[in-house]
Amino acid sequence: MSEFLQYVLSGTTVGAVYALIALGFTLIYNASTVVNFAQGEFVMIGGMVTAFLFAAGTPLWLAAPTAIVVAAIVGILLNKLAIEPARGASVISLIVITIGASIFLRGLAGIVFDKQIHRFPAFTGEDPIAVFGATILPQGLWVLGGGAAVLVGLYLFLTRSIVGKAVMATANNRLAAKLVGINTNSMMTLSFGLSAAIGALAGVLATPITLVAYDVGVGMALKGFAAAMLGGMGSPVGAIVGGLLLGLIEAMTAGYLSSEYKDAVAFIVILIVLFVMPSGLFGPRSVERV
Amino acid sequence: MRLFSKTVVAGGLLLLAADPALAEIRIGSVLSVTGPASFLGDPELKTLEMLVEEVNAAGGINGEEIALIHYDDGGDANQARTLATRLVEDDEVIAVIGGSTTGVTLAVAPVFEEAGIPFISLAGAVSIINPVNPWVFKTPHTDRMACEKIFTDLNARGLSQIGLISGQGGFGSSMREQCLDVAGDFGIEVLADETYAPRDSDMTPQLTSIAATDGIEAVVNPGFGQGPAIVTRNFAQLGIELPLYQSHGVASDAFIELAGESANGVRLPGSATLIVDLLAEDDPQHDVVTAYRDAFEGHFDEPVSTFGGYAHDAFWIMVSAIETAGSTDGEAIRQAIEATTGWVGVTGEFNMSPEDHMGLDLSAFRMLEIVDGDWTLVE
């Protein structure tokens, strides 16, 4: 029984990281229908910048927000320098551009920082908390709390605030949004900045557990993308559920079946879900507008 | 160097007769200085450059300077093969040191074999020298020896039932196979056999499942990179009170730094480079290891690593072989390398033969334990 609980706790912690990355995908997808494959690099930037600032003597409470701001600026630059100039291009071309940006950012990080593995201390101690025979790290609670806070914040922002509604409007119909006076370009910039900040937050929260290096972005992006697809691309709730489910499936497979097939089982589940529900668990039912 | 001084005279005599005569001595190297294996290739290249400088400053080999022609393969075996061909055809090197990883080594070895160029690899797997390829040598211990060293220590502690948790990367899966293969010889039973992907960030499910297996007495973790650090942290988080063994793949100070307090009590087979200050004065490796450590740390302002040590040994074996051969003839150098016996390097004592192109035995490994965040010697 305590083993089952351990798998649940492990799966949820890892899943919460996936969920945060999936949320980043969701945000940019909603604003532009572009899947931003550079999302994982924001996670890396969040972790690396914090680790280096901390190593240089900056206190953690200052290093972490700085890293998030740096990532947000990189996100905005990515939009301004790479996505916006290619505005007229098809979505596929834009996605290819984000893959290029991802490779570029990874290479740059390898030069600006280094190629070693880094970490910084957990926010509130390293002693595991015992829960009915299983354990969770205090940092795991930070990751879970961070995921929940971002979800609530994002939900309120997109549904309650006028700017959030403008982002949604831009996503639904760019031309119509322009006609009612929404500056669609700033909405794009805003969503890239926000999405990068959320990715960096995931990196900052997870690094004490998962460690960080210049090349962790690809793996992160892949898992986050899978989570977003599972939950339904474009749905914030779907991103969270997809992330947690993916983490749990991985942990259960590793624990009860075989760790060798952990990733395979996770991806088979995703394939089955997408066969039955092509737009994911919480995705909008696809209706082709003619 | 001093070990070979007596061969210089003989080499000088040979020089008169040898053809082609020594000119500038062109030694090639292909290393993974960037990319995922950069933690191997980076100290290896630094070591080679430092030693080339040292030998040239002292007058070179038999009066001829060494020119090191280096290419970075970025950890990519395809790229490495192209660069190897370039070393042979354009740069006309007479000998090659390199191949930071097993994958790269196996990809480039045929190129050098075909061209008749002696090649000393810096990669781990036993498959590089078994079966023996006349032109291919290596200086690092094999993963099979690491397993044997760990199992010897388990026997000494009276433990026999273990759980394996291995990385799925090349290093981890190769060592896992070797461990499973030799376990029987040591009366070791592998009761649990789990793996993790190289980029996994949480191994608590695997460890929970291992710990729940009846009769497990110790856990062994073949792998390198961030995986073993996370395994060690998870191991402590779960409060598992069993001995944990890591491999020589993480034998560096960076591992202690990443694993933090969880690293205390971890044992692993490592080379003498890690415990320079703990070596007894009369230890055969004491002088060579201290000299290498002081030279490297004086030169680069970064801690010496086991991996740079592989390049150190490969370089001196190659240099002495060229001295002995007294020419740039590939076959003569090859035979001289094969005849290396009783030479003590930082990795261990090398006794090569036509059947053994590595020449190390288990004594080259030291069983280390991490106590209070520092290395200690178990024996």
Protein architecture, described:
The complex is a heterodimer of chains A (290) and B (379). Chain A is mainly α. Chain A has one domain. Chain A has helices spanning 2-32, 39-55, 60-83, 91-112, 138-160, 162-172, 174-179, 184-210, 217-231, 236-256, 262-276; strands at residues 129-131, 134-136. A two-stranded antiparallel sheet of chain A has the order 1-2. By secondary structure, chain B is α/β, with parallel strands linked by helices. Chain B has two domains: 2-141 and 285-362, Rossmann fold, CATH 3.40.50; 143-270, Rossmann fold (3-Layer(aba) Sandwich). Chain B has helices at 5-17, 38-57, 77-89, 102-115, 143-156, 170-182, 204-211, 226-237, 253-259, 286-300, 306-325, 330-338; strands at 25-31, 66-72, 95-98, 119-121, 136-138, 161-167, 189-196, 218-221, 244-246, 267-270, 343-344, 349-350, 366-371, 374-377. Chain B has a five-stranded parallel beta sheet, with helices on both faces. In chain B, strands 7-6-8-9 form a four-stranded parallel beta sheet, sandwiched between helices. The longest helix of chain B is centred in the N-terminal third of the chain and has 20 residues, at 38-57. Residues 8-22 of chain B have low confidence and may be disordered. The interface between A and B is large, with 37 and 34 residues.
